[in-house]
């Protein structure tokens, strides 16, 4: 109620309450500043007050804009001095590689100025992986890998007082040239509208809020993220989380308090002959030094042909707890956190029977630790995933059981400028696979990856 009362008073507040560091200063304020700095000590006669010219019209971001940016953004974005109202100066260790184009922790948007903003990022990975297979019929593998991408972000924003509309498109250009796979494609493509720091509605192609944070390593589709051959993927409450070809998405975001955010995201559409509908609510409590993230999801897939009996249902819950002790005046800083998630798949085949192998349940748990010293960051993390299917072997008295351990150590440091960073990641993974009707085996994986990353 107190928040609603303050919001009701917004139209009556002075324009100065809503000014930002990057907005023009009213003429009267420009004239007053030098006079104040050289004012004589001797008393002077009082001067009759003069009406101040009206300040130029500009977006009114509201009482809660600066607190939200100061505690929520925490300077994680490139150009954070402009976004959070901080004075330019040395950047903290955790600002080096974060991007304003993929805001963390459910932040609404760090790009709020009217007009069209151009930016993007680039990364390139060079790595080596050695994969050891437990079955004699499967050969061990070792190979070099080089991949990367260039992302160009175009963000258009228009505000009226506290209301806004914003659209984004991101073009990806892949370094890899694989026959049959397009080298240029799209990441984000969406539009949203609402009120800054209060609510918005988003429609298009985007990624839902992350609640399972894996730390400095395990970036998506990397060697350490894929892990050992055959190992189950980490469940991150991600049945309805990623951007997916053939499906659109819509979300309602609520920001009732500066430390509390909610998302109700849904996916819908058709791909590979199947219609799908899902919902993924999430919530984030963010006090800066501690963050609690939780999410749940439900999704159903049905065949588009009338009369087909096959269908699939996915559901799960999970979350994470993070602690940030990274005050900017400290030389040494650290962050750590833990995550856990549980997901279930129920699948019925075309014969109206349970697909026992295709109906697993998955439990994932893990944690990370980052230690920052000056501008360098040492990271480490561990994740354990256990999965079971519904195939039951009467002769051995058990169903299929699979486990996957993934761990990494990383080190990163900026090169000359904060927005150009190099990072090296060493990882090890072990998959213990015990199918109900196949031979058991253990697969190992060792990898090293060097990433060059730039935000512009």
Characteristic key phrases:
51% strand, globular, 8% helix, 16-stranded antiparallel β-barrel, 456 residues, mainly beta
Q: What is the topology?
A:
Layout (H helix, E strand, L loop, with lengths): L1 H7 L18 H11 L27 H9 L6 H5 L30 E18 L8 E20 L2 E12 L9 E12 L3 E7 L17 H4 L20 E11 L2 E12 L2 E13 L3 E14 L7 E15 L6 E17 L12 E13 L2 E18 L4 E18 L1 E18 L6 E15 L1
Antiparallel strand pairs: 1-2, 1-16, 2-3, 3-4, 4-5, 5-6, 6-7, 7-8, 8-9, 9-10, 10-11, 11-12, 12-13, 13-14, 14-15, 15-16
Spell the H/E element sequence: HHHHEEEEEHEEEEEEEEEEE
Q: Count of DSSP helices?
A: 5
Strand numbers in spatial order across the main sheet = 1-2-3-4-5-6-7-8-9-10-11-12-13-14-15-16
Low-confidence stretches: 1-96
- Give the mean pLDDT: 81
Q: Short description, anyone?
A:
This protein has helices at 2-8, 27-37, 65-73, 80-84, 223-226, and strands at 115-132, 141-160, 163-174, 184-195, 199-205, 247-257, 260-271, 274-286, 290-303, 311-325, 332-348, 361-373, 376-393, 398-415, 417-434, 441-455.
What does this structure look like?
The chain is mainly beta and 456 residues long. The protein contains five helices and 16 strands. Strand 10 and strand 11 (332-348) form a beta hairpin. The model is unreliable at 1-96 (pLDDT under 50).
